[in-house]
Specification:
By secondary structure, the chain is α+β, with helices and mostly antiparallel strands. It contains six helices and seven strands; from the N terminus they run ββαβααβαβββαα. β5 and β6 form a beta hairpin.
Length: 197
């Protein structure tokens, strides 16, 4: 018995809402029949891409495709601007061990892009392996349709006044005072004299 082709194991549906795993609203995608039957169709997240629905949704699908192409173009321009600027800079509070008080994730990077470049990006377009926990330079993989790039993120640590004061106190207690230094040197001289006798 011949094996079924992969496309025969799936069915086509028209998405009625954005789904970060499947695609965008009014896009035709292939999914497993059981997933369509149990989740997408009963929850009105999609409809079957049959002749009737393709005809009924044609205008919306064409408008959505035009929007997607424009969005991809805008995002491509944004990525080029970021690369020309060298990086996205994030200034974050750190403790006395130079560790970030709050970890940095995709949401923080998306917020920084929106603030700097006035464009919304979805967090799932960033492919971060783990959150950032300390200052440094990082490369974050970014992918939206045909726009695939590495975005440089520079995390700069910033200490609040209380932490700075605490660090200064710790350093002061670790360093010997002039008197302590004089006493230690006198003791070592006395020990040397005793040994020579």
């Amino acid at each position: 018995m011949p094996k079924r082709k992969p496309e025969n194991k799936t069915i086509q549906v028209i998405l009625l809402e954005n789904d970060k795993h499947l695609g965008e609203k009014f896009e035709v995608v292939r999914v497993a029949p059981v997933f369509a039957r149990n989740v997408l169709l009963p929850e009105w997240k999609a409809v079957l891409a049959n002749k009737l629905n393709l005809h009924n949704f044609m205008a919306k699908m064409e408008a959505a495709e035009t929007t997607r192409k424009q969005r991809a173009s805008d995002i491509g321009d944004m990525v080029k601007k970021i690369q020309m600027d060298d990086w996205i800079k994030l200034t974050w509070k750190v403790n006395e061990k130079n560790t970030l008080y709050a970890k940095i994730d995709e949401n923080n990077i998306a917020d920084a892009i929106k603030e700097t470049y006035k464009i919304d990006v979805e967090t799932h377009w960033f492919k971060m392996k783990k959150k950032f926990v300390e200052p440094g330079d990082y490369l974050v993989a970014f992918e939206y349709r045909e726009v695939v790039a590495n975005i440089a993120v520079k995390v700069v640590g910033e200490m609040d006044e209380a932490t700075k004061k605490k660090m200064q106190e710790m350093q002061a207690s670790a360093e010997p005072t002039e008197e302590e230094g004089w006493e230690n040197s006198t003791e070592s001289e006395e020990n040397t004299e005793e040994k020579s006798e």
